[in-house]
Design a protein that fits this description.
Blueprint lengths: L9 E5 L2 E4 L4 E4 L2 H4 L8 H11 L13 H13 L4 E7 L2 H18 L7 E5 L8 H4 L20 E3 L16 H10 L3 E6 L3 E2 L5 E2 L2 H13 L3 E5 L23 E4 L11 E6 H8 L16 H16 L2 H16 L8 E7 L2 E6 L5 H10 L2 E2 L6 E4 L7 H20 L1
Helix pairs in contact: 2-9, 3-9, 4-8, 10-12
This protein binds pyridoxal-5'-phosphate.
Length: 409
């Protein structure tokens, strides 16, 4: 018999709180999967949506262009690294990764190097749920093992293992270098999430790994794709996580917080060299064109979200969240059932030794007045940046409480 876990009905959301159908309020620890960085029902974002809806909700983006998209392109080019000068507006994170893969393949094809069509990635990654992106997710701990036999076969290096630059050791790269040496003639690009691996395990690694990766990609003539769909827009402490390594990718994907959690939209940015390289195949265009590409409503609210973020003291907020998470989750590390406690920017992770019983923990967390959605062995939060310290304490004390109770179970 089909017995799905019960869902929790929500009727409205405002600030950092979700109101349930039975009137209870939950403090939100998830930002609706990294997206709602400003919280909910945000006047500036609502105004942008309402303003745009009366002008033009949508119009096809083939042969036509419009100001909301042009403005968004200008903003994204402005706030990302200088070499990233071209972009494609996609309708979801997974699609922006598909577009990144196409860019890389089409680039090498146009250079007369059509044999470069495999990808290299690292274990523990997550890049989306479509068939192209599933093939890049961790082959074991992902939710896609069922589909393994029909996916493209890419190359997997071990998960990046250094926590900070002080622990750097060249042995972290041996397997990666071997894979590049043996296969670089077939490899179009390396793809990975910078600094923070999200849904593949909430794992953090050191910037030096990325610097080494950039140098290896140049040495072996392989493009570097960074997937910042989860980390983009301040979550890890810098506006983009790649800034912590001082490197620039050839292709960058953004999504999730791009519209402040209001509408689905994503972007794939690239350098002039790659964009011009693609045009060299004679077609002059990237072979992709979704129906809702560049949706004006989504672009208008993305513009408002970026403006709101940049006008806010987001660095201070993220580092205050980091300090408070560090202090208030520390107790968790003393329990037997806990394998690790780690904090990076506005992300707090308690890794347990065994997978959690969702049938028990989810209703228990709701009872404690918080919305936190664990998966596997991970109990984690990435709250909206506007969370108050009292609200954040509600989240951390609920986490500590369930860990105490797990210890006794
Ligand atoms: C969420 C996510 C995606 C997929 O984005 P969707 O909008 O869910 O398709 C891809 N890469 C990373 C790193 C993500 O966190």
């Amino acid at each position: 018999m089909l017995r799905p876990f019960p869902t929790v009905p929500v009727v409205s959301a405002s600030g950092v709180e979700l109101q349930l159908a039975d009137g209870r309020m939950l403090v939100d620890g998830m930002s609706s999967w990294w997206a709602a960085i400003h919280g909910y029902n945000v006047p500036e974002l609502n105004a942008a949506l309402k303003g745009q809806i009366d002008t033009m909700s949508h119009v096809m983006f083939g042969g036509l262009s419009h100001e909301p998209a042009a403005e968004l392109a200008r903003r994204l080019i402005e706030i990302t690294a200088e070499p990233l000068q071209h972009l494609f507006l996609a309708d979801s994170g997974s699609i922006s990764v598909e577009v990144a893969i196409k860019m890389a393949l089409q680039y090498w094809f146009a250079q007369g190097r059509g044999e470069k069509r495999r990808l290299l990635t690292v274990r523990g990654g997550y890049h989306g749920d479509t068939f192209g992106t599933m093939a890049l997710c961790d082959p074991e701990n992902g939710m896609h093992t069922l589909f393994g036999s029909v996916l493209s076969e890419h190359l997997f290096a071990p998960r990046p293992e250094c926590r900070n630059d002080d622990e750097w050791d060249d042995s972290h790269l041996f397997e990666l270098v071997r894979l590049l040496k043996e296969n670089h003639k077939q490899i179009a690009a390396v793809i990975l999430e910078p600094i923070v691996q999200g849904a593949g395990g909430m794992h953090f690694y050191c910037p030096e790994y990325l610097r080494q990766m950039r140098a290896l990609c140049d040495e072996y003539q392989v493009l570097l794709i960074l997937d910042e769909i989860a980390t983009g827009f301040g979550r890890s402490g810098t506006l983009f996580a790649y800034e912590q390594a001082g490197i620039v990718p050839d292709i960058l994907t953004l999504g999730k917080a791009l519209t402040g959690g209001t509408m689905t939209l994503a972007a794939t940015l690239t350098t002039r060299a790659v964009a011009e390289g693609i045009a060299a195949d004679g077609s002059g265009v990237l072979m992709h064109g979704p129906t809702f590409m560049g949706n004006p409503l989504a672009c208008a609210v993305a513009n408002a979200s970026i403006d709101l973020l940049l006008a806010s003291p987001w660095q201070k907020r993220v580092s205050a969240i980091a300090s408070q998470l560090t202090a208030e989750l520390a107790e968790c590390a003393s329990y037997h059932c806990v394998a690790d406690v780690r904090i990076k920017g506005a992300i707090g992770v308690v890794e347990l030794k065994k997978p959690v019983d969702m049938g028990w923990i989810q209703p228990r967390l709701v009872e404690l007045g918080v919305w936190i959605r664990p998966f596997g062995r991970l109990l984690y939060v990435m709250p909206p940046y506007v969370i108050t310290s009292e609200q954040l304490s509600r989240l951390t004390s609920a986490m500590v409480q369930v860990v105490r109770e797990l210890e006794g179970r």
